[in-house]
AAA family ATPase
Amino acid sequence: MDAGNSQQVFTLDSNAPTAIGPTGRPIREFAEPQPLADHGPARIIAMVNQKGGVGKTTSTINLGAALAAYGRKVLLVDFDPQGALSVGLGLNPHDLDLTIYNVLMSSRVSAADVISKSSVPNLDLLPANIDLSAAEVQLVGEVAREQVLMRALSQVEDDYDVIMIDCQPSLGLLTVNALTAAHGVVIPLECEFFALRGVALLVETIEKVQDRLNPRLQIDGILATMFDGRTLHSREVVDRVVEAFSERVFETVINRTVKFPDASVAAESILSYAPKHPGAEAYRALARELISRGGAP
């Protein structure tokens, strides 16, 4: 059974009790944002979790597509040597002559030289492939090694409203670069006990970067992903996350559904692959919530 199709639909009226969402808070409808007349400078968001398989790339693609649909100019940065974000938007990483690696390592290559258009209006991509894995070693001896990505993105940040960085599942130098460049952090968190255990370490790393490298950095929110409301385990994990992080947890929860991998295979966002599916509406709701929180213009 597709858990995405089991999502409850609540109808609110003045005489009915307030419906409670999976995070234990009343369900709110966030206002539909208006398209922006002017664009830039971008707010930079790092999508970070040192555990793999928690929905970082899926959330980067679909949240980016939802923001673009609301009239924001969005740049997605693939900062994982596996290149999953690039594949998810229809590129073959092995065929790329220039990637984010070249932007980081060569002053003769700018981000604008490497950015490619996606099939989604207002959504561009700065791709990556396995070459990026060498950057972590090569940057060790560089001066201001934690700020290389920030300098690279400064070349194009005036052209976009939102730049989202899809980080590798690690807390190494590449992820520290992403946190140093970012204004905010979104932490996708699988609704599973072992995924929960690493969040405290991640928050500690974010606080160190705030203290030593990037005082403007803030946690925009923790996003519960792969939620299955039919299982006690999923509900307990969400309860514990809300108990620990309170208002830092997004009210929007992303349900587990087979439509997400189906959309990935088709190299599309779920918003174009299955626009009426509850998963597509969940990412639209997340985009509205992020904008209402000030996490995106």
The longest strand covers residues 218-225. Residues 88 and 265 are 7 Å apart (CA to CA).
